[in-house]
């Protein structure tokens, strides 16, 4: 623990610089931040003030002062912001610049996406990202390009904490700076697209009086928040009173502006407004993703609405976590398959996203990160698609429970009188749960409160989805007659050619066929998922180069990115299904402890 007697302004300069916290504000003695319990530093520090680290400062022999923890030194640094927006039309839009090594520089637009923009908006207290701009849309900058291929998850507190392929990058990204547009408005006390309106002005969030806000203003706010059209403008503090300052100018939008800060304003309004008059707003909250070309609402080519135009998604690195986000966003149950190669036909228009990097927990596909793969050429022959289940089993496990079917965006219970063994075959297959074990009636998993499915299902048993089965007209049923189902829940991974059930070449079951896994990026977290899935204890080794012999058939997975906590290997990120980066000479293997 350092003591006040050894501290000086020069020492403080070095410590604040080393911590990337700007300049020192105050050096405090007398244990201002409480007494420590560590050993005492016995040498006197003699920094000149220009060192990059405290350990580079000269020190003298042991000091003569008899110091105790009553003299522990404290330090307050300025904690400067390390990101800024320049050349925009508001404090919350512009070219992104990062402070690094004491110099401001730009961010390369390679791989720049809404997840990266979300971090910058949050760091600057600018609310939600509206757009992630590339190719110097907001101005060409000079100076160093500090970041290339930012890889934010979207939850980081600062852009510097995001992954980046290269810091101090120079060369390929000439004159292509990343930019962002943050909303500068927010709706609080409700949902993402409804609530009390607040506007950011001079770094302060301010409430808006209902007397100065009209339908044209609402059009702009809903558009800026990517929430569709306004449904209702509410006054009289409909979403409770705020405690922010009151906005004192009258907003005069024409209704076609992209941001509220682009609207003209008049001088301070004549109305005597208080928080009793806080304006609230309800927007439509439109869906920004859709599935096209499939045989149901929950299957098809993935298309994303961005800048008012629908475009497709590249299938490079398109995997089950990405599909899970789309299925959840559309309220379509669990993902059955993540398909590529324009499985549902090629789209048209822009290809909006680079290869996706979803964890599977995001609320919308736009919140996922993406990364540019230089070796992958995306075109409409590589459009991504998804098949969601459209059925689910509730009140049980993943493969057992009360059956519900999605119809016209509503989950509906199924009557046991209209459901038989052939129907069960299809449902279990659709959920990737193997064969049906038991078909149960009489609300074996408790009664549900969903609407009742009124048609009789007549599957032949070989359909891939329940929505493809013929159905007859209405059938009378009550909630006492809910259909219950238990499927086998087959294993989707196995170990082959090892000397025990818990060691061998990794093989994955996909689309009814076993295939291998490429050893590119194969590591211990991935091995941990396999060992857990097979109830084989802890991972001992993650092996490559066909250690357990070469497999045959498809190489289903490459470039795995497991955290190690996933319940199944299929839930890990990957380079996409059946897009091998290796041959069977590089089949992955694993050795588990077996305990």
TrEMBL record:
<keyword id="KW-0472">Membrane</keyword>
<feature type="disulfide bond">
    <location>
        <begin position="209"/>
        <end position="273"/>
    </location>
</feature>
<feature type="disulfide bond">
    <location>
        <begin position="459"/>
        <end position="469"/>
    </location>
</feature>
<keyword id="KW-0677">Repeat</keyword>
<feature type="disulfide bond">
    <location>
        <begin position="562"/>
        <end position="572"/>
    </location>
</feature>
<dbReference type="InterPro" id="IPR001190">
    <property type="entry name" value="SRCR"/>
</dbReference>
<dbReference type="InterPro" id="IPR036772">
    <property type="entry name" value="SRCR-like_dom_sf"/>
</dbReference>
<keyword id="KW-0732">Signal</keyword>
<dbReference type="GO" id="GO:0016020">
    <property type="term" value="C:membrane"/>
</dbReference>
<feature type="domain" description="SRCR">
    <location>
        <begin position="289"/>
        <end position="389"/>
    </location>
</feature>
<feature type="disulfide bond">
    <location>
        <begin position="518"/>
        <end position="582"/>
    </location>
</feature>
<feature type="domain" description="SRCR">
    <location>
        <begin position="83"/>
        <end position="183"/>
    </location>
</feature>
<feature type="disulfide bond">
    <location>
        <begin position="152"/>
        <end position="162"/>
    </location>
</feature>
<feature type="domain" description="SRCR">
    <location>
        <begin position="1"/>
        <end position="78"/>
    </location>
</feature>
<feature type="disulfide bond">
    <location>
        <begin position="314"/>
        <end position="378"/>
    </location>
</feature>
<keyword id="KW-0325">Glycoprotein</keyword>
<feature type="domain" description="SRCR">
    <location>
        <begin position="185"/>
        <end position="284"/>
    </location>
</feature>
<feature type="disulfide bond">
    <location>
        <begin position="253"/>
        <end position="263"/>
    </location>
</feature>
<keyword id="KW-1015">Disulfide bond</keyword>
<keyword id="KW-0812">Transmembrane</keyword>
<feature type="disulfide bond">
    <location>
        <begin position="121"/>
        <end position="182"/>
    </location>
</feature>
<protein>
    <recommendedName>
        <fullName>SRCR domain-containing protein</fullName>
    </recommendedName>
</protein>
<keyword id="KW-1133">Transmembrane helix</keyword>
<feature type="disulfide bond">
    <location>
        <begin position="16"/>
        <end position="77"/>
    </location>
</feature>
<dbReference type="Pfam" id="PF00530">
    <property type="entry name" value="SRCR"/>
</dbReference>
<feature type="disulfide bond">
    <location>
        <begin position="47"/>
        <end position="57"/>
    </location>
</feature>
<feature type="disulfide bond">
    <location>
        <begin position="222"/>
        <end position="283"/>
    </location>
</feature>
<feature type="domain" description="SRCR">
    <location>
        <begin position="493"/>
        <end position="593"/>
    </location>
</feature>
<feature type="disulfide bond">
    <location>
        <begin position="531"/>
        <end position="592"/>
    </location>
</feature>
<feature type="disulfide bond">
    <location>
        <begin position="327"/>
        <end position="388"/>
    </location>
</feature>
<feature type="domain" description="SRCR">
    <location>
        <begin position="391"/>
        <end position="488"/>
    </location>
</feature>
<feature type="disulfide bond">
    <location>
        <begin position="358"/>
        <end position="368"/>
    </location>
</feature>
């Amino acid at each position: 623990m350092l003591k006040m007697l050894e501290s000086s302004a020069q020492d403080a300069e070095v410590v604040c610089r080393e911590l990337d916290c700007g300049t020192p504000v105050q050096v405090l003695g007398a244990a201002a931040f409480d007494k420590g319990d560590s050993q005492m530093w016995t040498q006197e520090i003699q920094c000149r003030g220009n060192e990059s680290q405290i350990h580079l400062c000269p020190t003298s022999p042991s000091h003569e002062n008899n110091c105790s923890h009553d003299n522990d030194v404290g330090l307050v640094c300025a904690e400067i912001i390390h990101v800024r927006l320049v050349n925009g039309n508001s404090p919350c839009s512009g070219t992104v610049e990062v402070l690094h090594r004491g110099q401001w520089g730009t961010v390369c637009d390679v791989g720049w996406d809404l997840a990266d923009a979300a971090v910058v908006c949050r760091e600057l207290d600018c609310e939600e990202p509206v757009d992630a701009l590339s190719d110097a849309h907001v101005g060409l900058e000079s100076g160093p390009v500090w970041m290339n291929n930012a890889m934010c998850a979207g939850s980081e507190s600062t852009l510097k904490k995001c992954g980046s392929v290269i810091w101090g990058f120079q060369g390929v990204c000439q004159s292509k700076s990343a930019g962002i547009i943050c909303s500068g408005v927010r709706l609080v006390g409700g949902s993402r697209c409804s609530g009390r309106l607040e506007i950011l002005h001079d770094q302060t969030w301010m409430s808006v009086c209902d007397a100065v806000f009209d339908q044209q203003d609402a059009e702009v706010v809903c558009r800026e928040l990517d929430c569709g059209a306004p449904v209702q403008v509410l006054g009289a503090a409909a979403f409770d009173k705020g405690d922010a300052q009151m906005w004192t100018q009258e907003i005069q939008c024409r209704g076609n502006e992209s941001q509220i800060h682009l609207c003209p304003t008049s001088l301070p309004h004549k109305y005597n407004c208080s928080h009793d008059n806080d304006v609230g707003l309800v927007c439509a909250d439109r869906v920004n993703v859709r599935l096209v070309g499939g045989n149901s609402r929950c299957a098809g080519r993935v298309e994303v609405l961005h800048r008012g135009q629908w475009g497709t998604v590249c299938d490079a690195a398109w995997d089950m976590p990405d599909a899970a986000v789309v299925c959840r966003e559309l309220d379509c149950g669990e993902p059955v398959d993540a398909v590529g190669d324009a499985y549902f036909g090629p789209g048209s228009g822009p290809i909006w996203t680079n290869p996706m990097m979803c964890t599977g927990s995001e609320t919308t596909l736009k919140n996922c990160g993406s990364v540019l793969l230089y070796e992958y050429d995306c075109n409409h022959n590589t459009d991504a698609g998804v098949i969601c289940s459209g059925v689910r089993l509730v009140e049980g496990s993943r493969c057992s429970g009360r059956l519900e079917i999605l119809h016209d965006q509503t989950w509906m219970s199924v009557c046991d009188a209209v459901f038989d063994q052939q129907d069960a075959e299809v449902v279990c297959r659709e959920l990737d749960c193997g064969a049906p074990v038991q078909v149960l009636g009489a609300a074996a998993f408790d009664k549900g409160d969903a609407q009742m499915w009124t048609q009789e299902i007549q599957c032949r048993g070989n359909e891939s989805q329940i929505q493809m089965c013929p159905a007859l007209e209405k059938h009378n049923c009550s909630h006492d007659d809910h259909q219950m189902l238990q499927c086998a829940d087959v294993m989707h991974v196995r170990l082959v050619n090892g000397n025990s059930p818990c060691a061998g070449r990794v093989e994955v079951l996909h689309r009814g066929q076993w295939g291998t896994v490429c050893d590119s990026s194969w590591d211990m977290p991935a091995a941990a998922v396999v060992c857990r899935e097979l109830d084989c204890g802890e991972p001992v080794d993650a092996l490559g180069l066909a250690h357990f012999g070469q497999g045959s058939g498809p190489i289903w997975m490459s470039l795995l990115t497991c955290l190690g906590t996933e319940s199944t290997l299929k839930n890990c990120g990957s380079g996409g299904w059946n897009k091998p980066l290796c041959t069977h000479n590089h089949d992955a293997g694993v050795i588990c402890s077996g305990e």
